Amino acid sequence: MNVLQLPPSLRRAILHTPGIPWAASNNVRPGWRALSQSSASNAAAESPPLTPDQPGLITLSPSTLNNYEISIPPTTPQLKYAHHYCASAAPLFLYSAATFRSLPPSPHPEVAFLGRSNVGKSSLLNALFGRPNARNAHVSKRPGRTRTMNGWGVTGGLPLGAAPKEGQREAVWKRFPRGGCVVVDMPGYGGGSHEEWGKEILKYLQQRKQLRRTFVLVDAEHGLKRSDISLLMHLRSHGISHQIVLSKVDKLIYPGAKPPGPGRLSADLLRLKDLCAGIRQTLNEEAGDGKEHLLDILCASSEKGLDERSKSRRIGVDEVRWAVLSACGLECDDHGQRKTARPPQDITVLDEDES
């Protein structure tokens, strides 16, 4: 038996098991025996010996944090690309509309973020823009702080068009570059929100041609509410592209002041996976059609990051950024090289008096 060809964990277990005459094996050279003994002793001093049947701990990665059933988990270069695209420049405030008819015309793809009042939607958007401590999207502990549909332009670092000449007025969105996308912060629904906001939200979801995907935020600590289920069933029945984002996920996997240890993190990630499975089961049962509908569920936190060396990278936010870019046709390839944006063929630009 050549001990050096065995996996390190199994090798250490054999080295520390009395009664196994591994050193007498003819397949191990004498000069390597001392090296193997020294390496095993150092490894044993650094960490307790592992046994071959001990299960490995789950570490944090896009595939363990999020539940991908439709999409392929993004690669590290793709996440870096998404981070740079969304955080390289401050977002450009494009419009604020109280009703659907007051929305401006636009040739740019849009994504909308929806959620119950005080679900952490505005905080997540500020983190998505790379400015978690800024107030681009209004943040408040009082439910219903966001009262209008607010459009923010993400340029990906592309230059804006020429500013209007002195004395001329021009809509800001007309200077917005091709190759960018618009993120819409929608009013919250549920407790603390006005009833009429729901009507305008539904008009936007069903009639806005620029809309590419709707991200529905669900509080990870409290789970699905009846209003969440009703909205998700409406999106499904009308064929509106949507994706669930569990917000405030740090409450589950990072509840303390210090980052969790490997064992605690592994257990919490398994618990988070069970939570996502329960959400998916609830929605399938609510649909009542006997079909299993596949759905990606993203998990994110606008408050904390597990990497102490880069505290600006919040948990799961880069994955949300990647989902936004993918929905708008602005993603990159597996190596982080930018693709040519898909032409918005189904977007109709209206005159301002028609909107």
TrEMBL record:
It comes from the Eukaryota. Residues 137-156, 334-355 are annotated as: Disordered. Residues 107-304 form the EngB-type G domain. Transmembrane segments: none annotated. InterPro entries: EngB_GTPase, G_ENGB_dom, GTP-bd, P-loop_NTPase. One of its GO terms (molecular function) is metal ion binding. This is EngB-type G domain-containing protein. The keyword DNA-binding does not apply. It comes from Hortaea werneckii (Black yeast). Pfam families: MMR_HSR1 (PF01926). GO terms for cellular component: mitochondrion. Keywords: GTP-binding, Magnesium, Metal-binding, Nucleotide-binding. PANTHER family: GTP-BINDING PROTEIN 8 (PTHR46498).
